[in-house]
Protein 1
Amino acid sequence: SKGNHRHYMLKEIYEQPVVVAQTLRSYLRRMEDQVSLPVPDFDLGTIRRVTIVACGTSYYAGMVAKYWFEQLARVPADVDVASEFRYRAPVMEDGGLMIVISQSGETADTLAALRHARSEGQKIAAVVNVPTSTMAREADLLLPTHAGPEIGVASTKAFTCQLAVLAAFAANLARAKGRLDAKAEKELVRHLAEAPAALNAALAYDESIEAMAHLIAVARDVLYLGRGPDYPLALEGALKLKEISYIHAEGYAAGEMKHGPIALIDDKVPVIVLAPSGPLFEKTVSNMQEVQARGGKVVLISDYDGVQAAGEGCIATITMPKVHPLIAPMVYAVPVQLLAYHVAVAKGTDVDQPRNLAKSVTVE
Ligand code: M6R
């Protein structure tokens, strides 16, 4: 049931601190400060390349995970949308691991990519939310998310749980490759373990996000900008808004703005900037200022320090807790979900059953 919530989507957004904690519990051994994953029947240390395949929001989780596989494990990682992967004659060499990511575990394109990779001799890991699903059964290594049933067509809690699993798995692969010593592992585990509390803190801004939703609800087009692991979050924010409010939205890598999309900027196109303070902050802010210099209306999502440093001149700011960059993509998922939700409610759309969409897409 929806409990006290008006929609399943809102209920599922609010469940995130609990279900991410639940998911992390099965992947972290807190007492020993270690990640602990199911042991596959192949040697993880022999994995030389990772290919991540998924659709929609699950694909964006894969885009974030690419950073982790490359940064932590130094294993080359490709990410592809499942419907593209199969038809481009992808090169699959020995020592390749395919990771499929799917809430339902039944998405036809992703399943077809899994079967294709298997026939080419790849090992398969599946990050799925439905443990009895076809993908779960067909994988060599099952990495369940423990998000519980997700009813809203717009995926929310499945996404943050996918990120939790993928971060733990990237750390596990890094360890297997001899790239993560005990001290680094301990720090990583500590940062991951902070995610549930940080998600909770992010939810506290629900009312202020609701209060600014009218600024976005009147727009015809909205842009989302992010850099590094927050770039996929910009894509996710735009997808959420399109799906449930029917407002045209696009996500861009912040640095790409000046290569074209900045031509769209005027005072009618709100630009949502995702910029946690940290190593990429200054660069993102200078892209944001390019937008403002052309009359663009910016909503800045950052932490207290970021909002202090760059919030002036924005039409609104949303202050997130200050978190380690590893968990920022999880935490910043919350404001983009809530913003899409409140804009959709303001527009009076059917949040849980948006037009033309199905929860599980079982045709190619
Ligand atoms: O069940 P899956 O994770 O494989 O589904 C993939 C996409 O269909 C799904 O994420 C879709 O994009 C959602 N409606 C996004 O909110």
Note: The first strand starts at residue 28 and ends at 29.
Protein 2
Amino acid sequence: MTEHCTIVDHPLVQHKLTLMRDKGTSTSEFRRLLQEIALLLAYEVTRDLPLGTARIETPLEPMDAPKLEGKKLALISILRAGNGLLDGVLQLIPSARVGFVGLYRDEETLEPVEYYFKVPENLEERMVIAVDPMLATGNSSAAAIDMLKKAGAKDIRFLCLLAAPEGVKRMKEAHPDVPIVTAAVDSHLNEKGYIVPGLGDAGDRLFGTK
Ligand code: URA
């Protein structure tokens, strides 16, 4: 991947995103749409998976057909909203290993603090796809990527549904080697750190909490 931030402007993605943004969309519908979009975004983020060939026989004749070379994958969900994207990506790549990163924001320092970290072994050999629907300030995303790099990850991509320009900038400065794939980059962050126009709190809408 070369572009730092790729916007997947496919009509199906954009249509589903509009339904997700609508405040009238129910929790079950929101969850289903996130899974469907995740599948389409996963297609884009894995576009450069290495291909080899395999000798096979079709009913008509033998051929050397394209086949994944078997690069190992790790999907890392940034808790908790990351789990909504994770489900969709796993539908496309069911054999991927899965890890979880949990961070909360310290009310005094405003810095992200780790509360959970469990990732597959041999991260250095894997294509690592970190998933979190909302790239807002970028602080927790950048911290999560720091943790993955410390654990050995070298080939990391960041998959989100919506990004704010502030978050994209923060990630580009902190991790220029980590490409971002998203469905849209919105206008700005508001004073509470919400993406505008955005879709509200992705975790709350996904899990039906408030
Ligand atoms: N996290 C969310 O869930 N929504 C935002 O708008 C920003 C961060």
Note: The longest strand covers residues 97-105.
